[in-house]
Amino acid sequence: MEWSSRRSVIRMNGDKFRRFVKAPPRNYSVIVMFTALQPQRQCSVCRQANEEYQVLANSWRYSSAFSNKLFFTIVDYDEGADVFQQLNMNSAPTFMHFPPKGKPKRADTFDLQRIGFAAEQLAKWIADRTDVHIRVFRPPNYSGTIALALLVSLVGGLLYLRRNNLEFIYNKTGWAMAALCVVFAMTSGQMWNHIRGPPYAHKNPQNGQVSYIHGSSQAQFVAESHIILLLNAAITMGMVLLNEAATSKGDVGKRRIICLVGLGLVVFFFSFLLSIFRSKYHGYPYSTILKTRKLSH
């Protein structure tokens, strides 16, 4: 409790972890974030998850329900590598709940890859494991309001400057490009990112390997949605070029070149997109086994 009065998240090394988290008896639950925050680890996901973790811990510390039933701690790989080895942990960040009695169960490990690391999602998981309900309070963020005000000012200023010539509002190409941007954003999973708050990518602290494509069909990284957006845009460009080559009435040689470029874009990038789909949905291409039975009369 004295440590919690000084800071919301208690930093622990191997000795403190074994004494206050692993050793019985205890009458309190402990949430531990295993991470790698040192600059040489280059774990940007760890820093992002740590910000959300700090928001959650501060919400608990300054809430009226604050008690000695729950504590938030952190174990950094460079300060407690022996803890990582003891738990056979080879990835970071990882959130675990250590109950007052018994060993942690499978559900006591937070499914970060599927749910993301938003403070609200962590609070729901903690409520499920400990019956301690934490209302998340975030510091005020006016960046969205400022950005919206700047956008409105920019559009208003543009309309004012062009008030004598507003024909560009009826430009079909401009509206088509805007519609495509919205379609690309939604089909690539940007709304899922906004709701779940997944990490941008995943870096293995053991070997430093960075993964931009999630291996499961139930989750994704932010970088993955950006890659899918670019692939969809390239395929669409190829289809536009193919349509242009078929409908235009220009030089035949030029139309043939446009057709080949469009076909190349569609074939190459759609193959790339299909390979990503295959890596996430194991067992693709799907097949149907038909069984026939001979009926004897």
Automatic annotation (TrEMBL):
<keyword id="KW-1015">Disulfide bond</keyword>
<keyword id="KW-0813">Transport</keyword>
<comment type="pathway">
    <text>Protein modification; protein glycosylation.</text>
</comment>
<keyword id="KW-0812">Transmembrane</keyword>
<feature type="transmembrane region" description="Helical">
    <location>
        <begin position="257"/>
        <end position="277"/>
    </location>
</feature>
<keyword id="KW-0460">Magnesium</keyword>
<feature type="transmembrane region" description="Helical">
    <location>
        <begin position="142"/>
        <end position="161"/>
    </location>
</feature>
<feature type="transmembrane region" description="Helical">
    <location>
        <begin position="227"/>
        <end position="245"/>
    </location>
</feature>
<comment type="similarity">
    <text>Belongs to the OST3/OST6 family.</text>
</comment>
<keyword id="KW-1133">Transmembrane helix</keyword>
<dbReference type="GO" id="GO:0008250">
    <property type="term" value="C:oligosaccharyltransferase complex"/>
</dbReference>
<keyword id="KW-0256">Endoplasmic reticulum</keyword>
<dbReference type="GO" id="GO:0018279">
    <property type="term" value="P:protein N-linked glycosylation via asparagine"/>
</dbReference>
<protein>
    <submittedName>
        <fullName>Tumor suppressor candidate 3</fullName>
    </submittedName>
</protein>
<dbReference type="GO" id="GO:0015693">
    <property type="term" value="P:magnesium ion transport"/>
</dbReference>
<dbReference type="InterPro" id="IPR036249">
    <property type="entry name" value="Thioredoxin-like_sf"/>
</dbReference>
<keyword id="KW-0732">Signal</keyword>
<dbReference type="InterPro" id="IPR021149">
    <property type="entry name" value="OligosaccharylTrfase_OST3/OST6"/>
</dbReference>
<dbReference type="Pfam" id="PF04756">
    <property type="entry name" value="OST3_OST6"/>
</dbReference>
<keyword id="KW-0472">Membrane</keyword>
<feature type="transmembrane region" description="Helical">
    <location>
        <begin position="173"/>
        <end position="192"/>
    </location>
</feature>
